[in-house]
Amino acid sequence: MSAETEVVVMDAYRAIMERRSIRKYKNRDVPEDILKKCLNAARLSPSGANLQPLKYMTLTEDLEKIFGCTNWAGYIDWNPSKDEMPRAYIAILKEEDKGQDIDVGIAAQSICLAAKNEGLGSCILGALDKEKLVKILKMPENYELKLLIALGYPDERPEVVEDSEDVEYYLEEDVLKVTKKPLEKVWIRR
Ligand SMILES: Cc1cc2nc3c(=O)[nH]c(=O)nc-3n(C[C@H](O)[C@H](O)[C@H](O)COP(=O)(O)O)c2cc1C
């Protein structure tokens, strides 16, 4: 392993359990070395046939313009204000006709977990005005925009509602309650 990819070992299970989508961010810049760690986590992620069809664009400028191309928290009547918007994004791009969308999802989760490990909040964003975004991003040729990962220091603490049958998260006294199905409902014992 090169020095570039050496990382402090953390409790991966805890990071997975405690990661929640963050949609309210503090007005504080995201350091470049943390973005670099997130990219390394994505870069070393698994991909079908090891095709590595993805490229990653870090975005720390034109943040208001990018924010204008995003959609938030579809189940509730709420949007982050401009003061609460993400302070960086990572765009995940996939080479056309190469690899699979599953590769994109795996890389996205790696980025979110690496961010969590550094005290950053994240939110995977798929509901995008892609037409508008690709004009802002100046995309490389033969790549398509798949997802944005919003990043920043969290200014909210969403809570899991265990054993919920409902998929719709909701706000309760300003706290986002994120419903998750009970283990028994997703575990098929054979
Ligand atoms: C592929 C994908 C696309 C998503 N797109 C959006 C989005 O456009 N806007 C948003 O606010 N959240 C988006 N999310 C976040 C989900 O709403 C969130 O993961 C879900 O509500 C569960 O909450 P949790 O991430 O805190 O566990 C997306 C998540 C995934 C995996």
List the SSEs and their pairings.
Elements: H1 12-18, H2 32-43, E1 54-59, H3 63-67, E2 88-95, H4 101-117, E3 121-125, H5 130-137, E4 143-152, E5 159-161, E6 170-172, E7 175-179, H6 183-186
Parallel strand pairs: 5-7
Antiparallel strand pairs: 1-2, 2-4, 3-4, 6-7
In short:
With 190 residues, the chain is of the alpha+beta class.
Key phrases:
four-stranded antiparallel β-sheet; 2 domains; 190 residues; NADH Oxidase; alpha+beta; binds flavin mononucleotide; three-stranded mixed β-sheet
Q: Would you write up a description of this structure?
A:
This protein is α+β, with helices and mostly antiparallel strands and 190 residues long. Helix 2 runs antiparallel to helix 4 (101-117). The strands form two sheets. The protein has a four-stranded antiparallel beta sheet with strand order 1-2-4-3, with helices on both faces. Strand 6 and strand 7 form a beta hairpin. The chain folds into two domains: 3-155, NADH Oxidase; 158-190, no CATH class. It has helices at residues 12-18, 32-43, 63-67, 101-117, 130-137, 183-186, and strands spanning 54-59, 88-95, 121-125, 143-152, 159-161, 170-172, 175-179.
| Helix/strand order | HHEHEHEHEEEEH
* Beta strand count: 7
Tell me the strand percentage band.
Answer: 15-25%
Q: Look at the structure and give the CATH class of the largest domain.
A: Alpha Beta
Number of helices: 6
Fourth-level CATH superfamily of the largest domain: NADH Oxidase
Mean pLDDT: 95
- What coarse outline follows from CA principal-axis ratios? globular
Ligand identities: flavin mononucleotide
